[in-house]
Design a protein that fits this description.
Length: 366
Amino acid sequence: MSNTTHPILTPYTLHDLSLKNRVVMAPLTRSRAGETRIPNELMGEYYAQRASAGLIIAEATVISEQGIGWPNSPGIYTEQQVEGWKNVTASLKKTGTPFFLQLWHCGRSSHTDFHPSTGLPVSASEIKLEGKSVQTPLGKKSYETPRALTTDEVKAVVNDYKNAALAAKEAGFDGVEIHSANGYLLDQFLQSKTNKREDEYGGSIEKRAQFLKEVVQAIQTVLPSNRIGVRLSPNGVFNDMGSSDYREQFLYTASMLSALNIGYLHVIDGLAFGFHELGAPMTLKDFRDVFSGPIIGNCGYSLETANERIIEGSADMIAFGRPFISNPDLVDRFKNSLPLTAEAPQSVWYDCSLGGEGYTSFPPAG
């Protein structure tokens, strides 16, 4: 089937980057970095296998010890981690596929066991995540009530993001994506459900977006604006999120990001990851009205629905996550109308002890 039938397979120019297609590999936490959180050769092999994507966004990567909240996920805050990432980015440079790093701070979705030296997890306000449990290095534990960051501490975390972006540049990434979605720290500041602050970072829609704004501006001092993306999840319920004023908050935030001239907006508009049901779901068209730059849609897309969004003009690219786990050659399968390998079981997603099994072990189609 031709690329004219599948607009998602046509080339796209993302500012100064030439993408061979509009398929984005979404950031996927795979927990193969080990306790040191240093990227390794296996991770380089994994990403190189998936280089048929037009753009790859590497898995969420913590910006500091305080930001840790997931076992065996990679970091970008030590020299050893930067050196590890250099080997991974080198494997991608051979393929010509642009490679961005997603910057992550887990906030209240963490636990003291991840960072005993820094104590309780932090958030916008002292509001506990209502969930079953969190998987810590010492086993499953109940979520803790987080400590609210002071105003000065927020500014220190902004600097952590800046330093992480600088480290990503040193490691050879083409750009960064700021993870402001799925109930992690920046999302906790954005949403009224988790932000009850009365300082310059809370109390109104504009102030709740101030932290994200400062993070973007800080990273703009070390990277060009067109190499900075931001991810939002306006419909999401993951990590106990969902606010009554979600529509106003996210439209304002997208408009603010447009004014900051960021490289792209990555919107989890699909509902496959859960929906808070506080009103009508926000769509890519809603964001197209207020954001003037490139838009990536994400979550639960098929080849058909991806093409529909490109054709209607509400998205420029579509990100695929879980299909890339068991289909390293996903783009080639799309091109040749080949069936997709069934979704890999969740038991292989996050198990570092498995090594390449369920990670680099999926063969390409015949």
